[in-house]
Amino acid sequence: MTTPNIAFIGAGNMAFSIIGGLVKQGVDPKKIWATNIDQSSLDKLEQEFQVNTTQDNHQAIAQADVVVLSVKPQIMKDVITDLSESLKAKNPLIISIAAGIKAETLQEWVGQPMAIVRCMPNTPALLQCGASGLYKTPEVSDAQAEAAEQLMNAVGITLWVKDEDGIDAVTAVSGSGPAYYFLFMEAMQQAGEALGLDSQTAKQLTLQTALGAAKMALESSDEPSELRRKVTSPGGTTEQAINTFQQGNLESLVKEAMKAASDRSKELS
Ligand code: NAD
Q1: What's the pLDDT tens digit per position in 170-201?
Q2: If you measure from the C-alpha of residue 74 to the centroid of ligand 1, how many angstroms do you get, rounded to a whole number?
Q3: Does residue 97 line the site of ligand 1, with CB under 6 A?
Q4: Cα(256)–Cα(34) distance, rounded to whole angstroms?
Q5: Where would a tag sit more exposed on the chain, N or C end, judged by fewer CB atoms within 10 A?
Q6: What residues pair up with 119 in beta bridges, in sequence order?
Q7: Residue 1 has what pLDDT?
Q8: d(CA 250, CA 243)
Q9: How far, in Å, is the centroid of ligand 1 from the Cα of 268?
């Protein structure tokens, strides 16, 4: 597939990572346009990746087959309303990475049905290690869906959800998920310190264990439940800890927490 011309409207942190991933993968930087109201952000992008930059959102859209909307959600309405005529004239695929704004709302702001992919990335995308959930409106062609997938694959893995409510579930799993692991890391580090380790030792052991466990789970053909059973000898130390987690209903607590995240995502959109 030939690379489409891509315009990033509001090229901040997330767009910087996606652009970096695309250029590393060999996408011609001249196919990429980045816009920002802040010239220093554009200078940085131009220096680092030699992409085209402009403060004029309309100019970038005029070149684009794919428009990535990457401004903050609270200013999205103003940005799209201003760009509505340019978007209608060019009719590109729109990829929105803004949290909590429905495809229908984006279409209303443009003023006509458009091919829209809603994408929920997560912060590890900043290290090209992200997980993104994608949803497409019926107007999106197969070639456009493939283009959206390739674009987000530049910063990690991508998975499609069939209906838009799936994005609320993605938000609860991978969107907010990094924070759950950070919380668990904090708790493990503190518990390690309470057991007598110095804070650096407790931290390094905790983080390397998280990395090692994630790598094992990703690379093994066993399910995580099987991997857990394999490292839990009857009567051993791990079993004592796992029993304690289960007595405290860890699984139902996780379910409750993620339901709360999904409900909040629904409320916000
Ligand atoms: P960011 O603030 O770094 O980037 C947005 C950029 O838009 C800023 O640099 C700002 O100067 C620029 N901007 C503001 N008004 C503009 C305008 N009128 N025209 C052009 N540019 C304008 O934000 P971010 O962290 O990159 O997040 C971008 C989007 O990604 C948000 O909608 C957010 O919901 C979504 N998102 C981010 C993450 C994340 O981990 N950072 C995760 C999931 C979703």
Answers
A1: 999 999 999 999 999 999 999 999 999 999 99
A2: 10
A3: yes
A4: 40
A5: N
A6: 134
A7: 59
A8: 10
A9: 17
What is the reported pTM?
0.91
Please tell me the distance from the alpha carbon of residue 115 to that of residue 228, in angstroms, as a whole number.
Answer: 43
pLDDT tens digits, one per residue of 30-44: 999 999 999 999 999
Q: Say yes or no to pLDDT of 227 above 70.
A: yes
Task: Considering only CA atoms, give the Rg of the chain.
Answer: 22
Find the helix packing angle between 73-90 and 103-110, rounded to 10°.
60
User: Which helix (H) or strand (E) covers residue 7, if one does?
Assistant: strand 6-9
Q: What pLDDT, on a 0 to 100 scale, did the predictor assign at position 268?
A: 86
Cα gap 223→25, rounded to integer Å: 31
Pocket test residue of 14, 53, 122, 171 for ligand 1, highest count of atoms within 8 A of CB: 14
Q: Catalogue the E-assigned strands of 93-234.
A: 93-96, 116-120, 130-136, 156-160
Residues 155-171 have a mean pLDDT of 96
Q: Where are the beta strands (DSSP E) in 137-243?
A: 156-160
ipTM: 0.97
Strand runs (DSSP E) across 21-162, as ranges? 32-35, 52-54, 66-69, 93-96, 116-120, 130-136, 156-160
Q: Does the beta carbon of 13 lie inside 6 Å of ligand 1? A: yes
Q: Are 4 and 91 in contact (CB under 8 A)?
A: no
- C-beta 52 within 6 A of ligand 1: no
Q: Is the CB–ligand 1 distance for residue 121 below 6 Å?
A: yes
Nearest alpha-carbon partner for 171 in 97, 225, 109, 108? 97
